[in-house]
Specification:
This protein has 15 helices and seven strands. The chain is of the alpha+beta class and 287 residues long. The strands form two sheets. It has a five-stranded antiparallel β-sheet, sandwiched between helices. The longest helix has 19 residues, at 136-154.
Length: 287
């Protein structure tokens, strides 16, 4: 694995990065705190740790009522974090914007939140804007975390939970393989799935991005997202809007290249349609 060329420093990293890993239930991870160290300054890590600030603490910090906090949760949360850390509000906003674009901070009605789990965080590694700044070591640490820690911990072979796991993605046929077929189940047709979307966008596949020694000819801008997922990634600057015809052309090119079409299976009409490969896929590789 290419990541082996980087020697992991066994000395303790700053407590803030370890605390962020603990928030993800990975307090003992060797790699995750070092991923955060590559991604964030200590000031940024400190802001992320304050995402857990309660509405009551926000109200107390700003001297306002809980009702006022609720009326503009994100704004008041940012103001309270700035006060607690002795920073300018604009500085906190800039740092949160960076974390949002990078795929670690998520806006909610109750304020900014850290990723709910490592898979949400991993699948949000779609922004090419900061690649040069982060460097290959950042991606190699992610790959090492996946292969050494995350995949074994989630594998039904090691957890004994094979009968309990409901797959988050499913495989469907390529569009070309269905040409001329009759009685096609709509949910098995990528064209029918995408026709139901009001907004379609495409972004770079996080699975492929985290494997830097992948086949250089492998297509990477092949993750198709719809509606609310598309709009979220457009706001992050990681996706571009495409038409239905453009999306289908991306699907055709991906499946022609041997990539597997896998829509999300947690919704009847999925908002994510991935095209991935066994060498890097977060679903296929562990299997």
């Amino acid at each position: 694995m290419r990541g082996n060329k980087y020697r992991i420093n066994t000395q303790e990293v700053a407590a803030e990065y370890q605390e962020l890993a603990a928030l993800m239930n990975w307090a003992d991870s060797l790699y995750l705190p070092r991923i955060f160290k590559k991604a964030f300054t200590l000031e940024q890590a400190g802001i992320a740790l304050e995402f857990t600030i309660s509405p009551e603490e926000i109200a107390s910090t700003l001297g306002i009522s809980p009702e006022e906090v609720e009326s503009s949760a994100q704004q008041h949360q940012v103001e309270a974090i700035a006060v607690k850390l002795g920073l300018e509000k604009e500085t906190v906003e800039q740092h949160i914007r960076y974390m949002f674009e990078l795929g670690y901070a998520f806006p909610t009605r109750k304020g900014w939140r850290w990723a709910r789990d490592v898979m949400q965080m991993r699948d949000s590694q779609t922004n090419t804007k900061y690649d040069e700044q982060l460097g290959d070591e950042y991606f190699d640490l992610w790959k090492a975390f996946e292969r050494v820690e995350m995949y074994p911990a989630a594998s039904p072979l090691t957890t004994g939970a094979a009968d309990e796991i409901e797959p988050s993605f499913r495989i469907i046929p390529s569009r070309k393989s269905l040409e001329g077929a009759a009685d096609i189940i709509p949910e098995e047709s990528v064209e029918q799935i995408l026709k139901r979307a009001a907004t379609i966008a495409v972004l770079h596949c996080p699975c492929k991005r985290l494997v830097r020694d992948r086949d250089p000819d492998m297509l990477t801008e092949v993750c198709i997202v719809c509606d609310r997922v598309a709009e979220h990634n457009i706001r992050r600057g990681t996706a571009r809007i495409v038409s239905l015809d453009e999306a289908l052309a991306i699907h055709d090119a991906a499946t022609d290249a041997g990539l597997v079409c896998m829509p999300q299976s947690t919704e009847a009409w999925p908002k994510n349609v991935c095209h991935c490969h066994r060498s890097c896929c977060g679903v296929l590789t562990p299997a």
